[in-house]
Amino acid sequence: MNVAFFCTGEGSFLKFIVLNRKILERVSAKIILLCDRDCGVYHFAKDRLETRLIDRKSLGNESFERESAQWFLDLSVDFVFLSCNHILRHDLLGIYGGGEQKNV
């Protein structure tokens, strides 16, 4: 199972998961992080997890969503945890809505 986190800022929930990985032993989850800016959680995780920074401000919302969604699809992400919600829009959420992944 592949689990992705959208984080910006300090990412306390993701830090908890990473520092307590034993809680995910039963599901053999691969943890993935996407950040929309250079932030504390990015620096915490970049040497621990598969991590990508996609700068939303330089790309604009639509391109950011498209690149983010494609990266998740390329990595066969099963679940996305939304540690911040101000960077998400309807198109990106729709890809994971209804219990099925959809192509971009």
Structure description:
It is a single chain. With 104 residues, this protein is α/β, with parallel strands linked by helices. The protein has helices spanning 12-19, 40-45, 56-59, 61-74, 90-95; strands at residues 2-7, 30-35, 50-53, 79-82. It has a 4-stranded parallel β-sheet. β2 (30-35), α2 and β3 (50-53) form a beta-alpha-beta unit. The chain is globular.
Using only C-alpha atoms, the radius of gyration works out to 13 Å
Largest sheet: 4 strands, parallel
Order of helices and strands: EHEHEHHEH
Please estimate the helix content: 25-40%
- Give average pLDDT, whole number: 78
- Shape, principal axes of CA atoms: globular
Oligomeric state: single chain
Strand content: 15-25%
- The first-to-last residue Cα distance is 21 Å
Number of helices: 5
